[in-house]
Amino acid sequence: MREIVDGLLAWRAAGTAFAVATVVHTWRSAPRQPGAAMAVNEHGEVIGSVSGGCVEGAVYAAAQEVIAFQKAQTHTYGVSDGDALEVGLTCGGTIEVMIQPDVALTSLDDLLDAVAAGRPVATVSLPDSQLVVWPDRIEGTLGDDELDRIAGEQARGLLAHGRSAIVTACEREVFVQSWATPARMIVFGAIDFAAAVARIGKFLGYQVTVCDARGVFATAARFPEADEVVVQWPHRYLESTEVDERTVLCVLTHDPKFDIPLLEVALRTPARYIGAMGSRRTCEDRVQRLRAAGVSEQALSRLRAPIGLDLGARTPEETAVAIAAEIVALSWGGSGVPLTGMTAPIHGTA
Fold first, then answer.
1. 265: left (phi over 0), alpha (psi -120 to 50) or beta
2. Which residues form the XdhC- CoxI domain (predicted)?
3. 166-185, pLDDT tens digit by residue?
């Protein structure tokens, strides 16, 4: 819903009725993951996607019925054995889609406001009922107090990790969708490469911070896509800010007086990704300096340097793509090699 929240807010403000279709389960090579959403309003307008185009027409028709009769529907769409052009996923996957009218969505205005603002919230859904789970309260009901309690506890656990999934509570399957606070990307070094990395980080949904000790370079005007620009010694800032298992750290300064103390701190954090820019000679020298500073081999094995995948990048923008590609590959367990010729599933498990 994060992708379509602005459109839903506009429809709510205009008093327009709509239905929301959400992917709740996938099998094999499904094009979108659980939580992907598409909405259709009473005027026939569409926002979002549940399959990248494979079954949108069928979902659109079902959503119009949901709006007309104000009754939720659940549909399963898979590859058509008889004719690949019929409704189905020609990629070979199967998805289950739950389509709900807006009137069935609990505390919808508060939910949309929270999603738009990046505040943590989760929903627990059956086709005709819903819980909204906040860190401090639960609203709505699934029709049974014990089901509400158990499902709410499970939703809080998934929300803590930013995960969405079907779970079983009281012998019933319910779909939990969570919107955690966006993961952080911290870019160190206020250079032209950092501006490109900040842009692509924002595109990927990160909350982006750019940090540099040089105030003349670290300005909001130079990094308009960043959520914040910090003027501070990088290692001191990293010591004072929150870093969790979803955080990615991009060290682009390639200056030992910044890099060494910064990476000593970075390699002690639980950050998902730690990458540092530099030539192979610079990276080898940096590793030797870190060893001399007492950084362990196990910690050094987490360092991605030179940063990024081998795409032959030259420009700052191309380099940013290479860095983003490595972050995505590490996050989802991708190999980074071309899909052509591979036999493994395209959408692997993280």
1. alpha
2. 11-78
3. 999 999 999 999 988 888 99
